[in-house]
Automatic annotation (TrEMBL):
Protein name: Polysaccharide biosynthesis protein
InterPro entries: Poly_Biosynth_Transport, Polysacc_synth
Any single Gene Ontology cellular-component annotation: plasma membrane
Topology of the protein relative to the lipid bilayer: Multi-pass membrane protein
Native source organism of the sequence: Flavobacterium fryxellicola
């Protein structure tokens, strides 16, 4: 009987992994088409402006998500067999996110119309904000918690395909730059509406505004993760925003090309963490020792693959960049090579944070480590940008230092708590 249950769990895990692997394959391939096209069509400067707007609006995405992508997944995973608790959990989180989206829209509008640097392109920021609404409407955390990744795959692929086709059909010159966020937001909102209908019809969980007590309980549950995600933005998003404020959109464009290329590579590892997260939550409840052994295997595999990809990326960066962007992107190549160790560091960090610290209920450490990274980044970024005048290279070095530091910090925390996921601890 036990063996039968294990086979069923492994089958479900494999099915979820295949679904998310396909989704991330699409997420890798489509940006590889649209990303260079947008750089060539809009030009590096206008592309930098679009990226600056995305970076600014991403602050509001973090606030609206409030860490529910992790705490919500965990709560749904634990209540999925009780329809009453599941409905309450889903609606409490959705109500909280709805209130946060409205609050974010008000704050965003106030900022945009208060400063000329923003108000001159106010349409760009409002169109970009549509992605925040789309994220609210598409509760990825619900499907992850239910371990129904095929729904995430189908809906996300639909959204990406709509956006990709629309980009090539409608964006023909730099004057069409407003269509980029408009099309992206439109596809995201459309798929979000479909997902809510699907949850209502398939899982029998309709959306209903919840009372303050239920909402507040889930807000408290996600507090530490929210603090950590806000902190994360201070050494990822803030880097792009600060570059845009102290330099110009051309520099933002060069930096964005390098960082986006790196993020696309690192995204190849996301199916593992997204698939394993709800599985690890269940596994921890059964046996901590068995969980650690399982995590050791995953980590060893990740380290081996990421080092191999890193080497390939560094060797072939120059010809690939020139082939894709057909512009003078030598500066972006330099930035990419500075950032390239993150191809190894980020997948390791994702495992340590997302599928070790959180399932083991170490939310406080999760938050504390990211806050340390945020403070460190602001200090290092300030020194390199204003002290040494390094601009884009300084931003890249700062990001690398911070990611490496918090990854080491997380490893030390786990070691001290006797969670030895690195086999060389033995």
């Amino acid at each position: 009987m036990i063996e039968k249950l294990k086979r069923a769990e492994n089958k479900k895990l494999f099915s979820n992994l295949i679904s998310l692997s396909f989704l991330h394959a699409v997420n890798l391939l489509l940006p590889l088409v649209t990303f260079p096209y947008l750089v060539r069509t809009l030009g590096i400067e206008i592309y930098g402006l679009v990226i600056f707007a995305q970076a600014f609006i991403s602050y509001f995405s973090v606030i609206a998500e409030y860490g529910f992508n992790f705490s919500g997944t965990r709560e749904i995973s634990l209540t999925k067999n009780n329809i009453e608790e599941l409905t309450t959990t889903y609606n409490s989180i959705m109500t909280a996110r709805f209130v946060l989206v409205i609050l974010c829209l008000i704050i965003m509008a106030a900022v945009v119309f208060s400063f000329e640097k923003f108000s001159i392109h106010w349409e760009l920021y409002f169109f970009t904000f549509g992605s925040v609404i789309g994220t609210f409407l598409f509760p990825t955390w619900f499907f992850q918690g239910m371990e129904k990744m095929k729904y995430i795959t189908i809906l996300s692929v639909i959204s990406k395909v709509i956006f990709t086709i629309s980009i090539f059909v409608f964006v023909k010159s730099p004057n069409d730059y407003l269509l980029v966020p408009l099309l992206n937001s439109g596809g995201s909102i459309f798929v979000g509406i479909i997902s809510m209908i699907l949850i209502n019809k398939t899982f029998k969980v309709p959306f209903k505004i919840q009372n303050y007590k239920n909402v507040w309980r889930h807000v408290q549950e996600g507090y530490y993760i929210f603090i950590s995600t806000i902190s994360t933005s201070f050494y990822t998003t803030t880097t792009t925003v600060v570059l845009g404020l102290v330099t110009n959109t051309m520099m933002v464009g060069y930096y964005a090309i390098a960082e986006k290329a790196l993020r696309i590579i690192v995204a190849m590892f996301s199916p593992f963490t997204q698939t394993l997260y709800p599985h690890i939550i269940q596994l921890v409840r059964k046996s901590s020792e068995e969980t650690v052994v399982f995590l050791q295997r995953i980590l060893n595999f990740t380290i081996f693959i990421s080092i191999f990809i890193w080497i390939i990326g560094v060797i072939f960066a120059e010809p690939i960049f020139h082939l894709l962007f057909s512009q003078n992107v030598n500066h972006s190549i330099v930035i990419f090579r500075i950032l390239s160790p993150l191809i190894v560091i980020l997948p390791i960090a994702s495992i340590l944070f997302n599928i070790v610290l959180l399932p083991f209920k170490m939310d406080k450490y999760f938050s504390r480590i990211y806050m340390t990274g945020a403070i460190l980044n602001l200090l290092v970024l300030g020194i390199l940008l204003f002290g040494f005048k390094l601009s884009t290279t300084g931003a890249a070095i700062s990001l690398l230092i911070c990611e490496f530091t918090i990854t080491i910090y997380a490893a030390i925390v786990l070691q001290r708590n006797n969670i030895k996921v690195f086999t060389f601890y033995k």
